[in-house]
Amino acid sequence: MDVKTEQEFKNKVCIITGGAGSIGCATALKVFNAGGKVALIDHNLEQLEKVKNEFYDRDRLLILQADVSNSQDTQNYVSQTIAKWGKINALFSNAGFSGTSAPVTDYPEDVFDKVMAINVRGSFLACKYALPKINNGGNILITSSIMGVTARPGSIAYITSKHALIGLMRGISKEAAPRNVRVNILAPGPVDNTFQLEIEERASKASGTNVTEMLNNWIALGRHATPEEIANMAYFLMSDKSSFSTGGVFMADGGMHV
Ligand code: NAD
User: Fold this and answer.
1) Coil, strand or helix at 145
2) DSSP of 148-189
């Protein structure tokens, strides 16, 4: 990594939700290694404690347990970040929950509500409370999915929630633009990680087909992404390198949606 890249996030404060998870943590490490200060938010405290060892300078790291669907928790992680560093430059609203695999007619109402609460309400609350504190020229990135622009049977709550995030992003991008705060969507395709593997195992069982193989056939590049590849895109969208991009849906899906 050259010196210029190392300094790209120097003095920048970033909040990353789902920070104990695969994409969130990989992105946090990139931002951190580029000089950034990172508030890692997750409801899984045990996993947060595990990943914190990967961050060598604890002064530039804040670990906070929070349920992103909870208003008080959200206000708390925003105010604690401000209390520690006095500002926010970027918010990566990335925590997510996939729900279950069932046709709409069998889809459990409580699971639908939970998916919407974590994925949609979670990002709504993050934007509602963080936006007023984000410096002019800062940005918000929200993780949607290939399922935010396409659909397949059996994942109605996840599909609905990931489509909704694009509407949320578009509305907020117009409200935030006068302060030069950019708001974008990151839309990954299938990633080679536990989150996706569990979905594929469920779907394979339900459909009697090997869904991992099927997806690889649908992805133009013929394979799942690595978490690192998705984090590279998130890094770019959180950095000033994407300074003229707002209101955008950025695919990192190996051409799956085409
Ligand atoms: P992951 O499971 O490794 O990370 C998700 C994190 O969110 C976990 O650490 C989890 O503890 C956290 N989380 C869940 N509910 C929460 C809550 N209520 N409050 C706080 N934290 C909560 O999975 P990932 O692949 O890193 O997923 C990150 C994002 O990427 C999600 O929004 C997911 O929908 C999206 N996505 C993933 C894939 C994929 O193939 N893995 C593809 C497209 C989109």
Assistant:
1) coil
2) GT---TTBHHHHHHHHHHHHHHHHHHHHHGGGT-EEEEEEE-
CA of 19 to the centre of ligand 1 (A): 9
Residue 205 in domain = no
**Number of separate domains in the chain:** 1
Cα gap 10→4, rounded to integer Å: 10
Range of the domain at 138: 3-191+228-245
Residue 216 is assigned to a structural domain of this protein: no
Please choose from 16, 25, 42 the residue to mutate so as to test ligand 1's pocket, defined by most ligand atoms within 8 A of CB: 42
Nearest CA owner, ligand 1 atom 44: 145
The DSSP code for 100 is -
pTM over the 0.90 mark:
yes
Is the Cβ atom of 148 under 6 angstroms away from ligand 1? no
pLDDT, one tens digit for every residue, the chain (258 residues): 444 456 899 999 999 999 999 999 999 999 999 999 999 999 999 999 999 999 988 899 999 999 999 999 999 999 999 999 999 999 999 999 999 999 999 999 999 999 999 999 999 999 999 999 999 999 999 999 999 999 999 999 999 999 999 999 999 999 999 999 999 999 999 999 999 999 999 889 888 999 999 999 999 999 999 999 999 999 999 999 999 999 999 999 999 999
Mutate to test the pocket of ligand 1, among 17, 195, 230 (most ligand atoms within 8 A of CB): 195
